[in-house]
């Protein structure tokens, strides 16, 4: 235990009170529910705060006809204490926004456990068949974007306009864009009614639909013997709304050691750069370990839509045939770290060295260190030469090569421990 701080002033020693360290409930939630699913209850994890920090609860509900977006943030804060405050930021017969905020300095005092403080039962809007004299608007709230021609609902009395915008929710480095369409009591881009901050949550809105692209999103990892010859499906089952100025991307990386091959794919958003570009690159070809990639950047909704690996395979060189009684090497590709299951194969003609490398990949939802072993022509050969970026992936290559033994079989190199990768 650290000693109590002392302050000596004019010969008088003062004992200062120790700053209390709190334990607070912690967690986040951001999800769209059907109105019939509310009110909601939840449980939260616990964590310790820094000295002097307090506990906080932030909850926001956006009501939009049959839909409710609930945002909940629990955790530590430097903000001063604040009694429970319920605020109605937008009151409308259609779209409405309410919030709950609380800051306190007692252990686990941010104990909000349900959405009841902001819950008022809403009657879902009913679908109608146009034409109708009343206002009709599409209703949507989604981080994946909204359909261009969504189902229209009959708006309640008192609404005069159809709202169509993107609400950006931010906390620290985490940002979420949510498309919102619904009925509003006034025109213009003013759903938030001037609100820029709710507790730990920062908000902004933009009603220029062309500023935000929706892209297919997700990663793919496959390890099979014939990935360089037989195309496989490359589909994702989710999409993402990008930040302003970002474009869609899809990146496919293939590494074939001659025994086992790896196919790693990523779809999503990327920072603006070369737009509407499509490229296949052969970084290393036979008789070396094969390393090739496909990259595609485009700037229209859901344009990153390649659905199988033939976009890369169709341009690959033919694999080299093994040399009779030729040089032998251990071969392996392991996306999850170290090669424990290497297999000795006969290398193609002209291969004279056994490659061992560690490939650091980051970006596009991937963070991993891969181990690759295989046949190479030169001891100084590198799979990716000086390439530092492949599409959305950043690349760092570290090699370890050893000369062949007397019997023509290179011994497996000594491997040091590599931290296992994370694939979010």
TrEMBL record:
Q: Which keywords appear in this protein's UniProt record, sorted alphabetically? A: Cell membrane, Glycoprotein, Membrane, Signal
Q: Which CDD domains match?
A: TFP_LU_ECD_CD177_rpt1 (cd23623), TFP_LU_ECD_CD177_rpt2 (cd23636), TFP_LU_ECD_CD177_rpt3 (cd23624), TFP_LU_ECD_CD177_rpt4 (cd23637)
Q: What range does the record give for the signal peptide?
A: 1-21
Which domain of life, per UniProt?
Eukaryota
The keyword Signal is annotated on this UniProt entry: yes
Q: Does Ligase count among this protein's keywords? A: no
Report one GO cellular component: plasma membrane raft
**What is an annotated GO biological process for this record, any one?**
positive regulation of neutrophil degranulation
Annotated UPAR/Ly6 domain ranges read: 134-212, 241-305, 326-395
Subcellular locations according to the entry: Cell membrane
Name the record gives this protein: CD177 antigen
- Originating species: Chrysochloris asiatica (Cape golden mole)
Q: What is the lineage of its organism?
A: Eukaryota, Metazoa, Chordata, Craniata, Vertebrata
């Amino acid at each position: 235990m650290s000693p109590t701080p002392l302050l000596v002033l004019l010969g008088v020693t003062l004992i200062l009170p120790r700053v209390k360290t709190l334990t607070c409930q912690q967690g986040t939630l951001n999800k769209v529910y059907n109105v019939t699913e509310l009110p909601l209850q939840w449980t939260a994890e616990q964590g310790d705060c820094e000295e002097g920090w307090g506990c906080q609860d932030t909850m926001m509900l956006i009501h939009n006809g049959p839909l409710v977006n609930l945002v909940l943030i629990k955790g530590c804060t430097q903000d001063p204490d604040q009694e429970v405050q319920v605020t109605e930021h937008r009151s409308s017969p259609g779209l409405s926004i309410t919030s709950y905020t609380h800051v306190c300095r007692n252990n686990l005092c941010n104990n909000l456990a349900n959405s009841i403080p902001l819950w008022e039962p809403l009657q879902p809007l009913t679908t109608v068949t146009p034409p109708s004299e009343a206002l009709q608007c599409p209703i949507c709230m989604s981080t994946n974007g909204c359909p261009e021609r969504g189902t229209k609902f009959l708006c309640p009395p008192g609404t005069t306009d159809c709202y169509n915008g993107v609400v950006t929710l931010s906390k620290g480095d985490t940002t979420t864009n949510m498309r919102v369409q619904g009925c509003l009591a006034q025109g213009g881009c003013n759903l938030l009614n001037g609100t820029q901050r709710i507790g730990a949550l920062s908000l902004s809105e933009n009603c220029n639909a062309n500023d935000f692209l929706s892209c297919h999103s997700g990663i793919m990892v496959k390890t099979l013997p014939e990935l360089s010859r037989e195309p496989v499906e490359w589909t994702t089952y989710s999409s993402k709304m990008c930040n302003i100025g970002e474009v869609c991307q899809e990146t496919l990386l293939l590494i074939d050691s001659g025994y086992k091959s790896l196919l790693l794919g990523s779809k999503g958003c990327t920072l603006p750069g070369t737009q509407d570009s499509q490229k296949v690159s052969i970084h290393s070809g036979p008789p070396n370990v094969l390393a090739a990639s496909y990259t595609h950047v485009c700037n229209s909704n859901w344009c990153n839509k390649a659905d199988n690996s033939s976009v890369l395979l169709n341009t690959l060189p033919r694999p080299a045939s093994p040399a009779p009684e030729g040089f032998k090497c251990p071969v392996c590709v392991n996306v999850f770290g170290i090669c424990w299951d290497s297999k000795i194969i006969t290398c193609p003609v002209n291969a004279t060295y056994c490659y061992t490398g560690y490939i650091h990949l980051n970006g596009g939802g991937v963070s991993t260190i891969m181990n690759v072993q295989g046949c190479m022509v030169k001891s100084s050969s590198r799979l990716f030469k000086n390439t530092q970026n492949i599409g959305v992936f950043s690349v760092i290559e570290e090699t370890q090569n050893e000369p062949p033994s007397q019997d023509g079989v290179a011994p497996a190199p000594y491997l040091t421990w590599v931290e296992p990768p994370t694939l979010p």
